[in-house]
Design goal:
Elements lengths: L7 H20 L4 H20 L7 E2 L13 H11 L15 E5 L3 E6 L5 E10 L5 E5 L4 E8 L4 E4 L6 E7 L2 E9 L5 E8 L5 E9 L12 E9 L5 H6 L2 E6 L3 E4 L5 E15 L3 E20 L10 E10 L2 E2 L2 E12 L2 H6 L13 H19 L4 H15 L1 H16 L1 H10 L4 H15 L7 H20 L21 E7 L3 E4 L1 H24 L4 H19 L4 H24 L2 H13 L6 H12 L9
Parallel strand pairs: 1-7
Antiparallel strand pairs: 2-3, 3-4, 4-5, 6-7, 6-12, 8-9, 9-10, 10-11, 11-19, 12-17, 13-14, 13-15, 15-16, 16-17, 16-19, 18-19, 20-21
């Protein structure tokens, strides 16, 4: 096919057409007088449409409607009333400006904003982030707290745009902050905070007074709370993995939104909503459940190199109910560490905010590992407490380790007889299986007996996997070359990123993988001596699994990798120690003696044989 090209004639043609079009546009443009006439007609049309509007239309106010520089004269007040209705009074007060009320306790530095009446800053005094910067849960408008409601004069208002009048008082050691959105001196919507001296939980009440004929009871009143969670850890992706929205509903059930890009859910009878970060959390708790909650979680980490300020965005919408035309909702706010001991002490099921695992895994952590580790770390540095706890766990599990080794040793000494049966019935799989089962039964051995003890240890491994990444006690606690046992350790920063591995090298993870290789080599070697039917299993268990864990654990808590390293080393030592005291020849003699003993029949077998004899069946005699 011939290729089409633009020749010089085509170019000249296009240029002429373009020139003609431009000249026509210039000739037909309106004169200044025509433009003025068009603008006048437009304004007259808008004025006519404005007059034609029904008087009972709902007025959606905007943020700029609540901003006022001066409302001292009656003219200005009239303008505000036209915009805000009964709530115009709040914008005439001296507090109608961008200002904050500061409260400090031994635990908090708090700022309450006049605009919106909610907290504009929450700083935790006893904590800093990975870069030694104070921990802020709220700062620089990363949160929005709003009540959206309708009024009897057909307006829709948002409290986040209105100005509250602050007042501070004391009740013993407690500080009370009252933020009032006033209709008059005796009529208002109030946010009341009671901050305790040494408590991360504060009382929080939303109540109205004298607004029964101001708030439109036929429209929904919704409380919306949104927050973007700040990054606090060295690894933003690792922190994000443990950042999630947790909630309790229907009388004690708990759930959370997943780790996907966008998660949404609706729940009934919600008692608390927790915006949980890895080691810190912001919680709204209700004394009586909210009828329902619309929950949303969005992942803000798209690129770890670029998205380094926030981790997730959380949002919840909660309906507020009216009683006799008034709002009266008693709640609590918690801003503080995701510490199991602190949260559990409130006895409000808040310990579920800490991801200790479900079922038996959570039970082991709550009632065994947390008390044990807490006791050990009360008098030992955290690194040494991990050593001692690992030793205690391995001592407790030593009978299981011994049982597993002996089971594998039994299979090893039966290897010649197993090989003989395999050769004898190599063409008949069913008879071979029957003969092997008979051999195992007579000798008192089982190929699965060595796996059962390993399964018993499985809940311990999973519980530990959940424990250390959630243990705030080891946060920013150094040990050996690791400067923070709750985060990854590193001995080398790579100038590039390896997919699924990272841009650093963790020494504890390497040591864990090496120890696992030696431990697996010893155990799988024993298993392979007994069973040669799965040659690929040895390579998988000895090399592939440690390499996979090397990639997975490189960005995990160094305390977790350290525990697994110690556990593998101790298990290796226990196995070598047991090996010295298990005599293969003596074990084989014992197995042969077991063969001579009559095989103990189960009650089920006895009943089957009795039923068979009644029908005249005679079992074959043993040769």
């Amino acid at each position: 096919m011939e290729e089409k090209k633009l020749d010089i004639n085509s170019i000249i043609g296009f240029a002429l057409i373009f020139g003609i079009l431009m000249y026509m546009l210039w000739q037909n443009q309106p004169t200044p007088e025509e433009i003025a006439e068009q603008e006048k007609a437009k304004q007259e049309q808008l004025a006519t449409e404005e007059k034609a509007k029904p008087q009972n239309d709902v007025i959606q106010t905007k943020a700029e409607d609540f901003s006022v520089t001066s409302a001292s004269d009656s003219t200005q007040l009239s303008i505000l009333k036209n915009k805000l209705g009964a709530f115009a009074y709040s914008s005439t007060l001296p507090s109608a400006k961008e200002d904050n009320t500061v409260v400090e306790t031994p635990l908090f530095y708090l700022k309450f904003s006049n605009k919106g009446g909610f907290l504009s800053e929450v700083r935790l005094k006893n904590f800093v982030n990975y870069d030694s910067i104070p921990i802020h849960l709220i700062k620089d408008k990363n949160t929005a707290f709003n009540i959206n409601f309708g009024t009897t004069d057909s307006r829709i208002l948002n409290t986040q745009d209105l100005y509250f009048q602050p007042s501070v008082s004391n009740s013993g050691d407690n500080v009370i902050v009252s933020m009032k959105l006033k209709v008059s001196e005796s009529k208002f919507l109030e946010y009341r905070y009671e901050i305790k001296k040494d408590d991360y939980m504060m009382d929080f009440t939303i109540r109205s007074q004298g607004l029964d004929n101001v708030i439109n009871s036929s429209q929904e009143i919704n409380l919306d709370w949104q927050i973007k969670t700040y990054r606090h850890a060295k690894s933003v992706s690792y922190e994000n993995r443990y950042t999630e929205l947790v909630y309790e509903y229907e009388g004690g059930k708990d759930d959370y939104l997943g780790q996907s890009e966008l998660s949404e859910d609706t729940a009934d009878d919600v008692t608390y909503v927790a915006f949980k970060q890895h080691f810190f959390t912001s919680i709204l708790l209700a004394d009586t459940p909210f009828r329902k909650a619309d929950l949303k979680s969005s992942n803000l980490i798209k690129d770890e190199e670029i998205d380094t300020v926030y981790t997730k965005a959380f949002a919840v919408k909660l309906p507020l109910e009216l009683t006799a035309g008034e709002i009266n909702k008693t709640m609590d706010l918690y801003f503080g560490p995701s510490d199991y001991k602190i949260l559990n002490a409130y006895d409000r099921n808040l310990d579920e905010v800490v991801p200790l695992g479900w079922g038996i895994f959570g039970w082991i952590n709550r009632y065994v590992f947390i008390p044990t580790f807490g006791f050990l770390s009360s008098f030992l540095p955290y690194g040494f407490a991990i050593i001692l706890m690992t030793i205690l766990v391995r001592i407790v599990m030593s009978p299981v380790t011994y049982k597993s080794y002996v089971s594998q040793a039994k299979m090893k000494v039966l290897k010649p007889e197993i090989a003989e049966i395999n050769e004898k019935y190599k063409d008949n799989a069913m008879k071979k299986q029957q003969a092997l089962m008979a051999l195992y039964k007579e000798a008192g051995a089982s190929p699965l007996a060595g796996c059962v003890p390993m399964l018993i240890q499985f809940p311990i491994l999973i519980a530990i996997f959940r424990l250390f990444p959630s243990a705030i006690e080891i946060r920013q606690k150094a040990f050996l070359w690791a400067d923070d046992l709750s985060s990854f350790d590193y001995i080398l920063d790579l100038p590039f990123t390896i997919p699924q591995y990272g841009d650093h090298v963790s020494l504890f993870t390497i040591l864990m993988a090496i120890a696992l290789i030696f431990s697996s080599k010893l155990n799988t070697g024993q298993m392979n001596d007994a069973n040669q039917q799965m040659p690929g299993m040895k390579f998988m268990m000895t090399y592939m699994m440690p390499v996979m864990l090397l990639f997975i654990f490189n960005s995990y808590s160094s305390g977790l990798s350290y525990y697994y390293f110690l556990s593998n080393v101790i298990t290796l030592g226990q196995t070598l120690f047991i090996r010295r005291f298990v005599d293969d020849e003596a074990l084989l003699r014992k197995l042969h003696e077991n063969k001579k003993k009559p095989v103990k029949k189960s009650k089920w077998q006895e009943r089957l044989e009795a039923a068979a004899k009644q029908k005249g069946y005679k079992p074959p005699k043993k040769k």
